[in-house]
Every structure is written in C-alpha cells, then in structure tokens.
Amino acid sequence: MTSYVARRRVDWGDCDAAGIVFYPNYFRWMDSVFHELTERAGFDQRRLRTEFSLSGTPLIDAGCSFKAPASYGDDLEISVAVTRLGESGLSLLYRFACGDRDVAEGREARVFVKSSGSGLAKAPIPASLRLKLEGFHAR
Question: What's the whole-model pTM score?
Fold first, then answer.
C-alpha cells in the first residue's frame, strides 16, 4: 500500500481564540488532500466530467477524531490511504501528524456520481481510475 502524503503549515488564520487549529480546517485539509491524491492518480474533477461523463465524487460520510492540538507554525504531515474500494464508492483514512505526535485521524466516504433525470445517481468507478486508486489501497 502506498499512502499519499501532503504537508500543510498551520497558519494564524487556521487557529481559534485558544491558538489551536479550529476543527473545520481538518475537514478542509482532508478535502484538499483527496483532490491532490486524485491528481496523483491521474484524474481530477474536471477530467471526470470531460472524459468519463461523471459529475464528481461527493462526500457521503466524514468524521475526525482529535488526538492532540496543533497550533500556529506547526508543520503537519497528512497521509491518506484508500481503505475500501467498492463498485461506485471508496473510503479513505487520513492521519495528521506533527513530527512524531499524532494530531488527528479522519475518514471520508465518497461516491462517484453521474447526472440522471432526477439529479445525481451512483456510477461505477471507471476501470482505468480503479486501477490507479488501487495503488493507494490499504490492505
């Protein structure tokens, strides 16, 4: 299994009045790192539309557990791995660390969708994209 690893420096504006990262930022970072992972896997949201006639990969579930505070100036390492790769959806596990200190652990479930007459409908993950995502699958 190969995790995708990203780095983020905690900015002053990422923190609350207590000087620790305001929790919604972890969700923002997870979303951002997911899109970096898809780019690394060779596709992005625009390419899903133009080459695969898909509408995107919306969230259907998300959560985060906080282990230790992070603060202004901290350098976070964010690793993400695919933990489940289904017919039309995938689950992801994110780990946030600052040096050797575990800061948070997040999870997302996403589904590939296409436009339908009544809105959006699940769509199978295209075989070529599934193959690329397999490279980030934790077994």
Answer: 0.94
